From TrEMBL:
Belongs to the germin family. Residues 64-211 form the Cupin type-1 domain. The keyword ATP-binding does not apply. It comes from Carpinus fangiana. GO terms for molecular function: manganese ion binding. The keyword Glycoprotein applies. Its main location: secreted. Keywords: Apoplast, Disulfide bond, Glycoprotein, Manganese, Metal-binding, Receptor, Secreted, Signal. This is Germin-like protein. It is found in: Secreted, Extracellular space, Apoplast. The lineage of its organism: Eukaryota, Viridiplantae, Streptophyta, Embryophyta, Tracheophyta. Oxalate binds at H115, E120. One of its GO terms (cellular component) is apoplast. Mn(2+) binds at H113, H115, E120, H159.
Length: 221
């Protein structure tokens, strides 16, 4: 009898707790209109802490950098990326999106990389780019895009771009996070102290080629 009473009480209380938790969540969401990044505080896995409202200005919600072409001179991949993440554009902190401008010269390339924290959508503004991604089933989806074309790269999947024409390429991208993160495959293998023998064992590349790439990317080991 006692157990049956407890069971009935739990059946009654559980919906109340659930509704109360929803109310708490809704109240929390309405406490503040935004969370402009406080760049003087360290970044955490949840993003930046909020700047005090008294210190927020309209400039926190405006970013003009995407109107200026990136400097591709002297870059190893003939490309330049101009980010508008929370670190550069404090107003997007906590809002779940951010932006990037990509400029590629003829022969330019964005090496295979991944964004662990976000999906990406690109819009070609100028030129032609061959863009694609690799699924977790190792299927490659790629296509040559022209002005006005849009393509998406699902979160966490390896993807790339290559200038497919003889003229400069300009691409605008948006991410589903204010801090999407990035891991470039070439840098992960060749720009650090990852021992060449281990790189060879795990990638099946020849050690002389690995050392050549490490020298190019500034790695050791």
């Amino acid at each position: 009898m006692h157990l049956q009473f407890l069971y009935v009480m739990m059946r009654m209380i559980s919906p109340i707790i659930f509704i109360f938790s929803l109310l708490l969540f809704s109240c929390h969401a309405a406490v503040q209109d935004f969370c402009v990044a406080d760049l003087t505080a360290p970044e955490t896995t949840a993003g930046y802490a909020c700047k005090k409202a008294a210190n927020v200005t309209v400039d926190d919600f405006v970013f003009s950098g995407l109107g200026v072409a990136g400097n591709t001179t002297g870059t190893y991949n003939k490309a330049a990326v101009t980010p508008a993440f929370a670190a550069q554009f404090p107003g997007v902190n906590g809002l779940g999106f951010s932006f990037v401008r990509l400029d590629m010269e003829p022969g330019g390339v964005v090496p295979i990389h991944t964004h662990p924290g976000a999906s990406e959508a690109i819009l070609v503004l100028k030129g032609k780019t061959t863009a694609g991604f690799v699924s977790s089933a190792n299927t490659v989806y790629y296509k040559t895009l022209k002005k006005g074309d849009v393509m998406i790269f699902p979160q966490g999947l390896l993807h790339f771009q290559v200038n497919a024409g003889s003229t400069p390429v300009q691409v605008f991208a948006t991410f589903s996070s204010a801090n999407p993160g990035v891991q470039i495959l070439d840098f992960s293998l060749f720009s650090n102290d990852f021992p060449s023998e281990l790189v060879a064992a795990t990638s099946f590349l020849d050690i002389p080629q690995i050392k050549k790439l490490k020298a190019f990317f500034g790695g050791t080991g």
